[in-house]
Amino acid sequence: MKLSLSLLLLLATGLHAQTPAPKPKARPGVNYDEAKAGNLPLPDLKLTTAEEWTTTRRPEILKLFQDHVFGKTPENIGTPKFEVTATKRDALGGLATRKFIHISLPDRPAWLGMDVMLYTPNAATGPVPCFVGPSFGGNHAVSTEKDVPLSTRWMRESKEKHIVDHKATEATRGTESSRWPLEMILKAGFGVATFYYGDVEGDSADGWKTGLRAAVSPDGANTVWKDGEWGAIGAWSWGLSRVADYLQTEKSVDSKHLAVIGHSRLGKTSLWTGAQDEHFGIVISNDSGEGGAALMRRDFGETTAIITKAFPHWFTSTYKSYAGNAAACPTDAHMLIALAAPRPVYIASAAEDHWADQKGEFLSGKHASPVYALFGKKGIVVDEHPAIDTPVGDFVGYHNRTGKHDVTDYDWAQYLQFAKRHWSK
Ligand code: GTR
């Protein structure tokens, strides 16, 4: 008894805070030395008043991200059509109602559309707040329910994930379920709407040719992408916004309380979605790293040069001109975070995920915080990168969780708490 009491005390006084930070594994050509990360001045947010921010500065910064990073989402894409294709009232052993919604563009038949899977808790007495996020593996990978249709779309080849000849197999069922703890989310009183990001377009250099971007471009698969035109992240973001559109019509969901969430490349997508679409009242970036929450002016882990070489299709073509020359780019990640303001935004890192530059992810939230102050809201008020497993911040939340690049129950526990805190105000 004595022992467990003192253990409890130790925990309460911050045993976690003493967890030593894991060391990064050396990688040729990649800097993991904090002393060499550099300290370039960030582009000035040029803050005056909340009103001026909303009417002038925010639109200016949004345009900078369109021109230099993600590209502009075309305005003439057409009106989406929403069809509820299946409803199951006793999903997950009676815990939830599960719906599938097919979203298509009748004027753009070359695009095959996207299949959204929506779970809402049956215990709810009214419309519920809802997390909206794309998945890497498809609805059948998010859910463990055997009657979820297996995605038939192109997927990135992966032995480990049982993707064979670029197709999902039965063995891929549930493989992403640890990242989507449905029971935990539903029991907390939230809904979940998700879809396979590859429904919008495949995540490969040529994915756009058979996806949304070719289908909506007059030149189709012959399009030559010009500077400032959208990349794959822009297309995936467009998909997220169409889910938000559908949810405006969904009675079981409180459409005023939607949180956009994404991990890694989909965390970059989540931030860009939150920046463009104010239907999302909370924006969550899980381990989004370079091109997401990590400051590009820091040379630590992945850099602009590395990401634009490996994944040029994610961004607008201009972005690669900042490879090795981040200082010339008129944006940095603190501005991407600030585009969510005054809406709450949460940034998560993982202690072993040095590739994503945890400190750079923290600093973007920290340096976005003055925008929240304009609105009389507190962002991140601590100055130092917090200890592992120590969430900080009010309207800008941040934590650096024990473990690797992933989404875990710990991450979700913080997101659920964060959403409850802000939405019960
Ligand atoms: C990596 C990429 C990261 C991150 C990650 C992911 O290969 O370098 O920027 O996006 O993929 O999405 O899993």
Briefly, what is this?
The chain is α/β, with parallel strands linked by helices and about 425 residues long.
What does it look like?
49% of the residues are buried. The model is unreliable at 1-16 (pLDDT under 50). The chain is built from twelve helices and nine strands. It is α/β, with parallel strands linked by helices and 425 residues long. The longest helix is centred in the N-terminal third of the chain and has 21 residues, at 50-70. A nine-stranded mixed sheet has the order 1-2-3-5-4-6-7-8-9, with helices on both faces. It has helices at 2-12, 50-70, 139-142, 182-187, 197-200, 212-215, 232-247, 265-276, 304-310, 333-338, 358-374, 409-423; strands at 81-91, 96-104, 114-121, 128-135, 191-196, 253-263, 280-286, 345-350, 396-401. It has one domain: Alpha/Beta hydrolase fold, catalytic domain (Rossmann fold). Bound molecules: beta-D-galactopyranuronic acid. The site of beta-D-galactopyranuronic acid has 6 residues, from loops.
CATH architecture: 3-Layer(aba) Sandwich
What would CATH call the class?
Answer: Alpha Beta
Write down the CATH topology: Rossmann fold
Number of strands: 9
Tell me the domain tally. Answer: 1
Order of helices and strands: HHEEEEHHEHHHEHEHHEHEH
